[in-house]
Design goal:
The chain is mostly helical. Helices cover 49% and strands 2% of the residues. The protein has 14 helices and two strands, in the order ααααααααβααβαααα. A two-stranded antiparallel sheet has the order 1-2. It is globular, with a radius of gyration of 20 Å.
Length: 327
C-alpha cells in the first residue's frame, strides 16, 4: 500500500513538472516584437463574427475546451482529414458548431492580413484569444491570455475516445477527468459555468426526462416544471438538429445564472445538477451563485490553467499557414 501511494504521489509530481515546464514558456507578450497587434486583429474579427450570430460565443468556447482536453491546446481539433478520420469527425466533436471553426478562420485571415504577422501566430493561440473575446462579448470577464503555443500535426478520431466529460458523469468521474489535466474541483465547477451560454441537442439528456429509471421516469433531481418544459421542446421523435439552451434564464449572457439554476434543480445534464446535488461540491455552487465576482475570478483562473494543458512550445509542432491543414 505504501509503495502504491508513493508511485501515485511521484506520478503526480512528475505530471505537475511536465505541465509547469511547458506552460512556463507561455507569456502574455509573446508576440510583442513579431505581431504586436495580434490581440486587436483577432478581437476585431471575432467581434464582427459575434455581431452576425450569437452562436459564435458558445461555439468558440466549446471548441477551445474540446481542443485542450484532446492532445492539449494545439488546435488539432481544427485539422481536417481527407478520409474523415480527424478529431472533428469523432461523434463527440461532430456536434461542434461550425461557427466556432469559422471564427478561428476569420481571425486567422485578419491576423495574416498584416504583413508583419503573416504566418507568425499559431492557430492554437488564435483560438485561445478568440475564446477570451467571445466570453467578454457575451458579458463575461475580460482576462489576459498567455501565448506562445505551437500547432500540433496530429489529429485522429481515436484520440478523442474517453477524453471528454459525458452528460451523465458523477462528481468522481468529473474530478478524475479534470485532475488528469491538472485542474482541481473548483476549476471544474468554474469551467462548467460556461454552460451559461451553451446549448445541447435533446438526445444528450432525453433519458432524464423520459426514462430515467424503472421507478422514476423523470430524474428526481430535476425540477419537475422544468422537466415538463423540456418535454415540450424535446418530444419523443424530436428533430435531432433541435438545440436547447443550457441556461433557461439568461442563455445569451455569460453570467452566474447557471449556478442559480442548479439550486433550483434546473441543470440540464446530470453532470451539471450533480454539482449541487453532491454535498462535496455544493458549497462552491452556492458561493458562485451568490457572488458573480467570485465566479468570474475562478473562471479566469481555471481557463488560464486549461490553456496550459499539453501545450507545444519552442520547436515543437509548427505555425500552420492554414488552420485546417498541416504545413
Amino acid at each position: 500500500m505504501e509503495t502504491k501511494s508513493f508511485f501515485i504521489i511521484l506520478s503526480s509530481v512528475v505530471f505537475s513538472l511536465i505541465i509547469t515546464g511547458a506552460s512556463a514558456q507561455l507569456r502574455e507578450d509573446f508576440y510583442r516584437s513579431t505581431c504586436p497587434n495580434v490581440e486587436s486583429l483577432v478581437r476585431s474579427a471575432v467581434t464582427k463574427k459575434f455581431t452576425q450570430t450569437f452562436v459564435t460565443a458558445p461555439a468558440t468556447l466549446r471548441l477551445f475546451f474540446h481542443d485542450c482536453f484532446v492532445r492539449g491546446c494545439d488546435a488539432s481539433v481544427l485539422l481536417s482529414s481527407p478520409n474523415n478520420r480527424a478529431e472533428k469527425d469523432h461523434p463527440e466533436d461532430i456536434s461542434l458548431a461550425g461557427d466556432g471553426f469559422d471564427t478561428v478562420v476569420k481571425a486567422k485571415e485578419a491576423v495574416d492580413s498584416d504583413p508583419q504577422c503573416r504566418n507568425k501566430v499559431s492557430c492554437a493561440d488564435i483560438l485561445a484569444l478568440a475564446t477570451r473575446d467571445v466570453v467578454s462579448l457575451a458579458g463575461g470577464p475580460f482576462y489576459k491570455v498567455e501565448l506562445g503555443r505551437r500547432d500540433g500535426r496530429i489529429s485522429t478520431v481515436a484520440s478523442v475516445q474517453h477524453k471528454l466529460p459525458q452528460p451523465d458523469f458523477n462528481l468522481d468521474q468529473l474530478n478524475r477527468m479534470f485532475s488528469s489535466h491538472g485542474l482541481d474541483q473548483t476549476d471544474m465547477i468554474a469551467l462548467s459555468g460556461a454552460h451559461t451560454i451553451g446549448f445541447s441537442h435533446c438526445s444528450r439528456f432525453s433519458k432524464r426526462i423520459y426514462n430515467f429509471s424503472p421507478r422514476n421516469r423523470i430524474d428526481p433531481t430535476l425540477n419537475f416544471n422544468y422537466a415538463m418544459q423540456l418535454r415540450g421542446m424535446c418530444p419523443v421523435r424530436v428533430d435531432p438538429t433541435i438545440a436547447i439552451d443550457m441556461d433557461p434564464t439568461t442563455p445569451r449572457i455569460f453570467d452566474n445564472a447557471y449556478y442559480k439554476n442548479l439550486q433550483q434543480g434546473k441543470g440540464l445534464f446530470t453532470s451539471d445538477q450533480i454539482l449541487f446535488s453532491d454535498g462535496r461540491s455544493r458549497d462552491t455552487v452556492v458561493r458562485f451563485a451568490s457572488d458573480k465576482e467570485a465566479f468570474n475570478g475562478a473562471f479566469i483562473s481555471a481557463i488560464t490553467k486549461l490553456g496550459r494543458v499539453g501545450v507545444k512550445t519552442g520547436n515543437q509542432g509548427e505555425i500552420r499557414r492554414d488552420c485546417t491543414l498541416v504545413n
